[in-house]
Predict the 3D structure of the following.
Amino acid sequence: MKHRYFLLVPFLLAVGLLVACAPQAGEIPLIPSAIVHGDPTEGQASLMNRLGDAGAQVELGDPVGQDFFTVKGRIIKVNGMDVQVFEYASPEAMEVDAAQVSADGYSVGTSMISWMATPHFFKSDTMIVLYVGDDVTMTALLESVLGAQFAGG
């Protein structure tokens, strides 16, 4: 009987150590901002890499949703400012949502939007990129990477 406990105690200690060191539910593992997951030549990963190559500090942020878009997006922090990225399954699917955005960016489909600052909508391949702000350096950076805005200020 003593021998069973002798073997059981180290086993339970090892299991306890593994459980204590494992990430807990809801914890987000720390990933250096320079690491971008996914195909680096496509979509959000490509955008983050191109912004980084242009000299911007880029970090992956939280998920985001806009009721007027058919996909959920992700915030990326560019030089500390929020940029929303909505990635679609195909260019055609992206164009369906992009066509709903008014030229000034203050309405999308039947939604009238009261932005806190000027909206700037860009599109590239399968993405719609939205920056809401008045920082001309940010707008110029996004234009250098994505091309001209298709809607907004």
